[in-house]
Fold each of these.
Amino acid sequence: MSNRLKVAPNDLSAFWMPFTANRQFKQAPRMFVASKDMHYTTSDGRKVLDGTAGLWCVNAGHCRPKITEAIQAQAAELDYAPAFQMGHPAVFELSNRLVDVAPAGMEHVFYTNSGSESVETALKMAIAYHRAKGDGARTRLIGRERGYHGVNFGGISVGGIVNNRKMFGSLLTGVDHLPHTHLPEKNAFTRGEPEHGAELANELERIVALHDASTIAAVIVEPVAGSTGVLIPPKGYLQKLREICTKHGILLIFDEVITGFGRLGTPFAADYFGVQPDIITTAKGVTNGVIPMGAVFATKQIHDAFMTGPEHLIEFFHGYTYSGNPIACAAALGTLDTYKEEGLLTRGAELAPYWEDALHSLKGEPHVIDIRNIGLIGAIELAPIAGQPTKRAFSAFLKAYERGALIRTTGDIIALSPPLIITKGQINELIDHIREVLRMID
Ligand SMILES: Cc1ncc(COP(=O)(O)O)c(C=O)c1O
């Protein structure tokens, strides 16, 4: 008898769940068994309104026919092709389609399987780029406090979330951090980009003065920091970072794993802020979250720096077995078709004012100490319970789920990022659930 058959179907212990309170979950499991458009269905048959696009990824809503059909057809025709030294048509078609929607200047795409791998790829690409140009001393990487760049060693090293770092040893060497831009005492309840804090970008000059520009390869930031609780860049901050990077020959990497593919009402955050990075990392929305895939965009300048030497030699010693996997490519093509047909990469811009008003109507509700929004992202920050950080927001999450809304919490912050197909009525419904929950919890 195979091992598999010996496992009782209702035994929850074998699965060690990621970023989950495992013991709490297994006492009272929350299971989704189906999904369609804006809703999940739970194992006890309830509909739950998706306020988080799964994990910031299901931008076009759930079980969209174009994506499902594309995956089915590709799986029946070409299931896998080696990613190294071989190609298949879908990956080339997808690359051209992605470059078409990407910010100007992004001309090449490198595939990964997740946001974390996109980040590792971008960091390695940046260091190797300088070396390929004969500038091999540029190896330092600059991240930012409260940044989230996935969970691999490069990502947690440049990242700035203490719980993601403190258990895992000394991390990468040669990393420094900009200060975060969260200034609640000055910017609380700002609608959109905060007024105060652009000068925090000047801290990069201090870091350059400490290490010397000739040792720094790249700065990586999320244009809008998502997983740390939605920190919106102060007006002018990203522009200043760009200027300082350019002045010192440092590459600017935008981690757009969350902000890519329409989340701010523009295809990418680089478009929203009018700032051109050198490398953009993406994942999540590239396949609508349906099949794991990440895509790293690079400028021609970066790509071409590698294209030297004998032509039979590999130029970039990097890649994954599943880079540009045919079924993931099919999912991404179906996703891009859906985005295009329904105008989803810009729909957020139309809805953003309504979304903003709805969110800010929660000002004055119990426990609320700040509300932040941009595009179709929102955050409601709650005062923590003394001595029990995160508990209040976690209670809100559980209560919202019981009432029929999926929200996400990080620390004591409720973070919202609904699918881009949400209607005004569903925005009201989501916010009403949260209002009721805030009135219920301790
Ligand atoms: C900005 C950012 N970078 C990287 C990641 C990591 O992505 P993944 O979980 O697909 O590895 C995330 C995930 O939320 C993210 O928000």
Note: The longest helix spans residues 115-132.
Amino acid sequence: MANIRELLKRPGPVIFDGATGTALAPFIKEAGSPSCLLNLTDDGREKVMAHYENWVESGSKAFLTNTFNANSWRLKLANMNDPNTLWEANYNAAKDAVTVAGIEHCAVGDIGPSGLQVREDMEEKLLVASARRQNIHTDKISNLNEYPTAESLIPGFKLQASALIEGGVRDILIETMSSIHELGAANRAVHLAINDLKLNNKLSPDEQVSIMATMSFDAGNALRPSTFNGNTPIDFIDATYSLGFVARGANCGNNAYGLHQILLILRDLQKINPTDKPKRIMPDLGPEFFIIKPNAGKPEMTASGPTYTISPKEMATIAVMTWEAGAKIIGGCCGTTYADIAAMANALAKR
Ligand SMILES: [Zn+2]
């Protein structure tokens, strides 16, 4: 199987995949139930493998496992929160994705957010509120102990990462993060999983597992784009400066044009390179790379379900803009179809 490091060394963009949830929604029996539950049956696994194959046929060089929701917190909402289910949903997804990836393509293990608000974020919100002399937040947050610390999420993320890596993936994307504290916990968990797998001879000592990270910024506020939790692009660049991600960037957010704006901000921030920090260089890769996965616009509800407003032609134009602005890994998020990725891959083929 190809890995992200190899793909990054090649000239031109690395085409990633598009939306998993939108593509697998027709096969989900209960609306809102996580698509990773498909990985628990033979029939479901066939559908998911066909989905992975569609990315490969559309031109994706790398694609994600359908494990965005395959963590204990999201599975709990579907009353499927036992460790065996979690393990199987991730392990099978990785195994099937690696099979489809073959020699040429790269299967990437997907780790999404817990969906919880962590204590550190609430503490920061309280600080901001008190600095602004606002009582709104302070009234709502009665007891900080009700919120889990970011550190307490580590075992959950570690279980997911272990299952994905044991299933065969050697690249992980931590995505759609809204909290730098949670992102840090997920990253730490993946490193702990790698260490444990090596100690238990389930991963050879010289094998590398690369990690990428994206946060979801809303570019709606052009002056101060931020995540749902209030983290800004500079918070992200600063907090992840020395974490060793092979690629950092943004996914989803407002829409594809908004994400292009975010990329410009990230690129400018990266150029600043404060003198008190060592220049961030990957030992075998050189400078780091940006990964951008925009969604296909705001969904409009129609009789046949949500329809996304940005056409494949527009997605292709945005993909070229994104490449020209400095992104190396380009894919899509919510609503991005196989046709969108094919149009993006075609437009980028000559770059
Ligand atoms: Zn999305």
Note: The pocket of zinc ion is lined by residues 252, 295, 333-334 (CB under 6 Å).
